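Checked the freezer inventory, then went back to the computational side. Two predictions to log before the end of the day. The first one is the construct we discussed on Monday; recording sequence and tokens without edits.
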Amino acid sequence: MRAMVKKSEPVLSQIARRVQELRSGRGLSQDQFARLVGCHRSQVSQVERGVKNLSVDTIDRFAKALGVDAVSLLQTGPVVARDPRKALSLRERVSRNVLALRSARGVAQDALSESAGLSRNYVSSLEVQKKNVALSHLEMLALALGVPLSELLASPESDAAVGHH
């Protein structure tokens, strides 16, 4: 049984709660965790308070430092361990998933961008991994594609991956 995203909790709050839970569960202070992530303690504090919009690269770094798959930061229940053998960065996964979902639905970039309220150039840059996408924009894309946000972050080898249902 797959863990579910809490529907009533905003995504930033969900990630904030999960990062704090996993960090403290590992006995790490914010300072210690910040050193693992490669950022300042104030950034860890902002993330844990849910006041900082995150990029996919930041989510990836936090998940990596916690030893979990990025999808685990959006879910309740057991974490999905990070598999170091999987070479794809979160940016690559998001890029592939957005492109695959858009293509599977026969939706052009301009139609997706309009539906999501983003520029076509933004969607194009995302699909070729040139864009470090903000979480708020990923939410808009997930809504426009009619999928849960976790599906955009899913590993292509996972059950939630595009085309592998």
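The second is the one RB wanted added to the comparison set:
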Amino acid sequence: MSPGRTTPLTPPLTPDEKLTTAQTILGHTFTHTDLLVEALQAAGNGYAVQLSTRTYTPQKNTRLALLGDGLLSSILREAWYATSQPLASWSRVAETVLANRHPKGLGCRGVKMGLGDCLFLNPGMWTYEVGMVATAVEALVGAVFLDVGGGGKGWEAVKVVVGQLGLLEHELLK
């Protein structure tokens, strides 16, 4: 898939279906739905998300993405360190896996797995960009960490999700 704008190939999901689909893709069932809604909120602050059970007005996902970005980087560094690869190889891993638009990077992998279809977009927006999906992947990682209470439990939960997303499959991490 080429970087840039993409259009969902299937009919739009309902808000409840977006949450269910995202949790299935991640392999994590959220206890705190508000974190999941915020992670998928690509629209700006103040846009309401109407679920069947209640309405959420989450912040945009950028704060969760910042947390998730740090966690992703640390998990990948831990996996890279265990391989005894030369120091220069870390840059190749980071430039590939943490890149928004690289075919093996966060955005493209998220699009391939269907996370783009789970985003809550601004009203009137019919498409998403690969960069928006990359931000959502980072935010979802941050949300999983907080959902289980952070700390060691959060770290372990995030490692499972990162594996589920295939982000540890880089040849230099084996």
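For RB: The first strand starts at residue 5 and ends at 6. The chain has a mean pLDDT of 91. Let me know if you want it refolded.
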